[in-house]
Specification:
The chain has 319 residues and is an alpha/beta fold. The protein folds into 2 domains: 130 residues, Cytidine Deaminase, domain 2; 179 residues, Dihydrofolate Reductase, subunit A. Helices cover 29% and strands 22% of the residues. The chain contains 11 helices and 14 strands. The strands form 3 sheets. A 7-stranded parallel β-sheet has the order 10-9-8-7-13-6-14, with helices on both faces. Helix 3 packs parallel to helix 4.
């Protein structure tokens, strides 16, 4: 099962609102084949494995998968169908699929097809890996992590509000690898962009997935020369605005590849239900997100706290 989780991680940043899934076919202690869900809309892990593996499957071979196999027709045919069709007689799974269309139905379908089912196995680890997917299907929103850095005295910026370097290079590397690269999107308020002009990338560790960059900008104040709306990174940036917008600026950013989306306001803050709808609805090449890392600033952190939409907080301490 641990190998399934390792394989599942290979889909990080590519599967959108789909789950991270890995599959392993075993014969005793020997691994016969492996597969994983590579990208949104592509083959599920079990189907990828069973379609690519052309060898004989014996009755005592075991298929391991970290998520209950699906039983419905979506973008791809049901995995339960090919599992039964290829003659797999034993399946070990990690967790029940939280999607109401599948939950418990996949394992039941396999049992009716003569497959022995064992599980859940390592359920907590499997659910943690797919915590964003679980949150989306049980609460209707992504998993939200707040990340902040503060000095030992609790200071997060200079007295005038300008950026203050707090964390070390080692802490920055850890943040990029274990926070940014483990979330589908990095979110900041527009004031952070105005003051810091951040890159919001995983540049400290090569080869990591690059999350979507999201800016909450109710009055469309983002500078046209900001790093995240220019060059190669512009295509991976989404600016969330209110209903009133500078159409010339909107056209300019759109031509650069920036996605500009309108979300209703509730007072001075965005309606979070509207925000979740925009971030989790696949459309026009956008596959949606299931996890969001909120990096600042203070007003943005506070709005998520007041809405009760924080699942995890990570604070790095600097000198």
């Amino acid at each position: 099962m641990h190998r399934c989780l390792e394989l599942a991680e290979r889909g990080r940043g590519k599967v959108g609102t789909n789950p991270l899934v890995g599959a392993v076919l075993m014969r005793g202690e020997e691994i016969l084949a492996e597969g994983w869900h590579e990208a949104f809309g592509q083959r599920h892990a079990e189907r990828a494995l069973l379609e690519d593996f052309t060898g004989e499957i014996r009755p005592d071979d075991v298929l391991y998968v970290n998520l209950e196999p699906c039983c419905h027709h979506g973008k791809t045919p049901p995995c339960a169908e090919i599992i039964i069709g290829r003659g797999v007689k034993r399946v070990v799974y990690g967790m029940i699929d939280p999607n109401a269309r599948i939950a418990g139905k996949g394992t039941e379908c396999l049992r009716k097809g003569g497959v022995e089912i064992i599980g859940p196995v390592e359920r907590a680890r499997c659910e943690w890996l797919n915590r964003g997917f679980v949150s989306l299907h049980t609460r209707g929103r992504p998993w939200v992590t707040v990340h902040m850095a503060t000095t030992l005295r609790g200071v997060i910026a200079k007295p005038d509000g300008s950026p203050l370097k707090i964390t070390s290079e080692e802490q920055d590397r850890w943040t990029h690898e274990w926070l940014r690269a483990r979330h589908d999107a990095i979110l900041v308020g527009v004031q952070t962009v105005v003051l810091d002009d951040p890159q919001l990338t995983t540049r400290f560790v090569l080869g990591l997935p690059s999350p979507l960059r999201v800016v909450l900008d109710p009055n469309f104040r983002i500078p046209a020369d900001a790093i995240i709306v220019n060059g190669e990174v512009a295509n991976g940036t989404m600016v969330i605005i209110g209903s009133q917008a500078d159409q010339g600026k909107r056209k300019l950013l759109g031509e650069r590849g920036v996605t500009v989306c309108e979300v209703p306001l509730q007072g001075q803050a965005f309606d979070l239900q509207g925000l979740w709808k925009v971030l989790t609805a696949p459309r026009d090449g956008f596959s949606g997100v299931t996890s969001v890392l909120v990096e600042g600033g203070q007003r943005t952190w506070q709005s998520f706290r007041e809405a009760g939409c924080i699942d995890e907080e990570v604070t790095l301490m600097g000198s």
